[in-house]
Every structure is written in structure tokens, then in C-alpha cells.
Design goal:
Distance between the termini: 31 Å
Structural class: mainly alpha
Shape: elongated
Radius of gyration: 24 Å
Strand content: 5-15%
Order of helices and strands: HHHHEHEEH
Number of helices: 6
Number of strands: 3
């Protein structure tokens, strides 16, 4: 995000406005806000952890989904036809809490498996007939060009 995009007033500033800004304490863009916050942290008005959280929140507002995506080659997934024992093994070795469930190929996403949903399986069910479609959740597909902050707000509306 550029300084011009992050200012509050979209009108071009006159030279009087610019001079007034020099003598004002109010930030007009993200960089001046960060400077103000860092000064507050130096003066111990904010602690370092609070400053880090605020800086992170401001970074998210300028990021797109593609900035945080995991490359397809590194995604750990579960085949939709895998037996429950194999699925439990994949989940436990991956240490991920959410895994895509794939059909015929990587473009055939059947849904998302939440590791906690495996806890609902009866003990000893590893040998029984298992239908993963009974426990997977709907997958949400998002354009990689979408703003990350918009996606995060949308996730708050999901289960």
C-alpha cells in the first residue's frame, strides 16, 4: 500500500495542508502511524508485544491471499478413498489440523478434513468400512488476488 492510497482524505493536499501536517501529531498514512506507534513503544506507552500485534494487523491489510499460500507441491492431502487407518496416519504425521480431501486428482477437492473430526470415529473403526464424506466439511475456494483481510473477515462467518 502506498502512502497516497492509505491517506484518509483522497483530495490532493495544498501546501498549507502539508505545512499544517508537519506541526500536527496526527498520522496521515500507514508509515506515519507506524512511526507514532514505535515512538509510543520507545516511550513505554505500548509494550513490544502490542506493537508487534498492531504491525501485523496493518501488514495483513495490504496482503493478498497469494502472499500466504502454500505451494501445491507442499500441501499434505488425504485421498478420499483411503481407509481410516491410513487417514489417521497421514494426519498424525503431518501435524496439520486441516487437510484437503482429494478425489481423482489435485483439482478434485472433495472437502476439508478437520483432525478433530477424526475423534468422533468409534474406537476400532480402522478395520470397518469407512466413508470420509460423512465427516469432511465444505471447502471454500478463494481467488489468490483477493485481499487477505477480506478473506479473514469472511472466515469469521463460517462455522
Amino acid at each position: 500500500m502506498t502512502d497516497d492510497q492509505s491517506s484518509i482524505d483522497p483530495r490532493p493536499k495544498s501546501w498549507i495542508d502539508k505545512i499544517a501536517q508537519v506541526f500536527s501529531d496526527e498520522p496521515t498514512d500507514t508509515n506515519s502511524l507506524l512511526d507514532l506507534l514505535r515512538n509510543a513503544a520507545q516511550d513505554q506507552v505500548l509494550d513490544g508485544q502490542a506493537l508487534s500485534m498492531i504491525e501485523g494487523a496493518l501488514q495483513v491489510s495490504s496482503m493478498q491471499v497469494k502472499d500466504i499460500m502454500i505451494p501445491r507441491s507442499q500441501v499434505v492431502s488425504v485421498p478420499s478413498n483411503a481407509p481410516s487407518g491410513e487417514i489417521v496416519e497421514i494426519v498424525s504425521q503431518s501435524s496439520h489440523s486441516r487437510l484437503p480431501v482429494l478425489g481423482e486428482n489435485v483439482d478434485d477437492v472433495k472437502g476439508i478434513l478437520l483432525a478433530k473430526d477424526l475423534l468422533r470415529l468409534p474406537i476400532g473403526s480402522h478395520n470397518e468400512e469407512f466413508d470420509i464424506s460423512q465427516i469432511i466439511r465444505r471447502a471454500n475456494f478463494v481467488s489468490e488476488d483477493k485481499r487477505l483481510s477480506e478473506v479473514l473477515v469472511g472466515f469469521m462467518d463460517i462455522e
